[in-house]
Fold:
Amino acid sequence: GLATLTHSSQFLTLKPALVAGDAPVGELVIINGQAHSWQQDNPWTEAAVGARRLAAEQFNRGSFAAAATGFRQTEARVSGGQKPLYHAFADLADAYGCWDRFQYKPAWDSLKTATKALDMASVFGGPAGVKALIPRLKENSGFLEKLVLDPADVKAAVAPDLLANAKRRAEQDRAFDAAMATALRALEAFAQVQLFKQHKIKTNDVQPDQLPAALRETCKTCFLDDVDGKYKLPLVAQFRALAALGDPMGQTFQAQWPQMKPLLDAAHRSPLGHGFETVTAERYHQLYALIVKITGVTDAALPRFPTLEL
Structure:
């Protein structure tokens, strides 16, 4: 059966030569007075449709490695003309798998290659869902290009990407501890970007005299890193610095501090923080809503992974 085959398989079968010229006269086989000819088929041509849909479902669930494996297995089995299509799907799954792990450069490289190949496939009659996929792929490729080529030490695009990643952890995986930790990192990244862009303050190497006077002494006494001897602002201090500098994001954080405290505590108690209590879905959703309120970020500003309908 097909399930036992690991590589492309060609079946030779005798079929009635119904049309004149189906085969040279010397190649015709006469059975019971009827002319037959040898015809070559690959059963994986049809079986590939089901395999493709299964791999697409794995992709849509965030199982990118499994999807890539499925597409590559199908690539090995189908006939030559279909191989580039499945190779492109495998590259696509690899790209989003890398992106999901914050490996931005290899993600961008694979996504560019896959998008070009699938764009060609959509022109020459690929699966129906490919054409609708291309705009999202190009949009995502543009996002990664901007992030990868950004020469700044503090890359602005990482903040919304972290928040999008947190959403995937919550919505796809129901992994709320991971979602909470990633969302908090996103919140910090928004603060870091604002401090760097507006005030040239790098939170992992801050100079105390860059800060408002009220925070300088605290920085000198509390935020010196014993490992590398640099002053480093933790998350709450970053927002307090923004507030003292008159930044609306920092001021909103300060105004929301009573709501933020229990959420920071929940993150601290998480196994991915410093404790042993798992985060609830409710706490994650509360934090996400606060991040939106503090930063002003919208869902439309977050990169969205595509849904494969193949």
The chain has three domains: 2-41, 46-149, 158-301. The longest strand covers residues 34-41. Residues 82 and 102 are 31 Å apart (CA to CA).
